[in-house]
């Protein structure tokens, strides 16, 4: 597949998550709630996580922001559901390295998350892409205290 075709595929995956977000909403009972924003661009996220016995059983988000920010939140909630907290944190670390253009461990199938790789070429957009991931890290760390 040529670079242009791959780039177009990634764009369509991002737009699909933006227009039809997965896990949009909020969890009520026994959930961890995290609100974060990116003051430089106005993106904001309200993330709720249901964590039981060290497993992220469910994850939902709400918020406002650009296509990168909201599609990243959709992808992140999809990939961490059912994972152990340690695995969710590993995924956040891998995602952070991907955004910085660093080598990362490919032990996980990142699925749609890989579509965000191109964001690393646009430093101003990295904070948009990582907002939901930072919120998740904060939430699982607070939960484990």
From TrEMBL:
<dbReference type="InterPro" id="IPR002871">
    <property type="entry name" value="NIF_FeS_clus_asmbl_NifU_N"/>
</dbReference>
<feature type="domain" description="NIF system FeS cluster assembly NifU N-terminal">
    <location>
        <begin position="10"/>
        <end position="128"/>
    </location>
</feature>
<dbReference type="GO" id="GO:0051536">
    <property type="term" value="F:iron-sulfur cluster binding"/>
</dbReference>
<comment type="similarity">
    <text>Belongs to the NifU family.</text>
</comment>
<dbReference type="GO" id="GO:0005506">
    <property type="term" value="F:iron ion binding"/>
</dbReference>
<dbReference type="Pfam" id="PF01592">
    <property type="entry name" value="NifU_N"/>
</dbReference>
<dbReference type="GO" id="GO:0016226">
    <property type="term" value="P:iron-sulfur cluster assembly"/>
</dbReference>
<protein>
    <submittedName>
        <fullName>Nitrogen fixation protein NifU</fullName>
    </submittedName>
</protein>
